[in-house]
Amino acid sequence: AQSVTQPDIHITVSEGASLELRCNYSYGATPYLFWYVQSPGQGLQLLLKYFSGDTLVQGIKGFEAEFKRSQSSFNLRKPSVHWSDAAEYFCAVGAAGTASKLTFGTGTRLQVTL
Amino acid sequence: GAGVSQTPSNKVTEKGKYVELRCDPISGHTALYWYRQSLGQGPEFLIYFQGTGAADDSGLPNDRFFAVRPEGSVSTLKIQRTERGDSAVYLCASSPRGSGGPDTQYFGPGTRLTVL
User: Fold this and answer.
1) Number of C-alpha atoms within 13 angstroms, CB side, residue B3?
2) How many A-B residue pairs are in contact by the CB < 8 A criterion?
3) Is A9 exposed, middle or buried (0-12, 13-18, 19+ CB in 10 A)?
4) Does B43 sit within 8 Å of A101, measured CB to CB?
5) Nearest by CB: A104 against B43, B102, B109
6) In angstroms, rounded to a whole number, what is the distance separating the alpha carbons of residues A113 and A44?
7) Is A73 left (phi over 0), alpha (psi -120 to 50) or beta?
């Protein structure tokens, strides 16, 4: 069975500082990996995804993530955080070869101080 | 174009009552998914439709939960004899293909269900 671990429940960074949110997955084959962002009262918005190919993927709002098979990780990064980035971030894994359920981590809440 | 829509946005009901939650997917999307998000948790999969049929309902917690998609577009999640533990945000998502390779799920804003 697939699983996702987001070790950091809550992270606080200063505006303009860099950000890295950790995600580790467990899956027996090549996974499909996603990062979603959820603002209060909003639905999940897709930031970026990895299906295959280049292991460094670019997303919206200046985010990027790197797939590292050897570490079973898919960490999300941003070089300079903006106050509007404060939200809940979810990493998710889907089974390769089919498109069915996503398994989500428990999320990381990002707080940005001015 | 229009995204995934869900109605109602909020639903308050009493323990033991029946509720229906509606999802309107993105036009033309073949696959539709329901998830449940409890407070402080990530979304948990409930059921997935490919067209009109339920391709995977392994996430439904018990037989009080049922979902339909009779015409392959709009879906309704039905919960009978609601319990306080059913209180959560119910999220719907749709994706273009739903099979044959990687696909991206697009989520609606959710329905917040509160069972008193």
Assistant:
1) 14
2) 66
3) exposed
4) no
5) B43
6) 23
7) beta
Choose among A88, A70, A66, A69: nearest CA to A78.
A66
The pLDDT tens digits for B62-78 are: 999 999 999 999 999 99
Within 8 A by CB and 6+ apart from A39, the residues are: A45, A87, A88
Do residues B23 and B75 touch, judged by C-beta distance below 8 A? yes
Tell me the C-alpha distance between A11 and B72, whole Å: 41
**What does the alpha-carbon distance between residue B41 and residue B37 come to, in Å, rounded to a whole number?**
6
Type of residue at A41: G
A109, exposed or middle or buried, with CB in 10 Å at 0-12, 13-18, 19+? middle
pLDDT score for A59:
96
What's the rounded Cα separation, in Å, for the pair B53 and B76? 13
Residue B6 falls in which region: left (phi positive, over 0), alpha (psi -120 to 50) or beta: beta
Contact present, B17 and B114 (Cβ < 8 Å): no
CA distance A15 to chain B (A): 25
In this predicted model, what pLDDT tens digit does every residue of B83-97 receive, in sequence order? 999 999 999 999 987
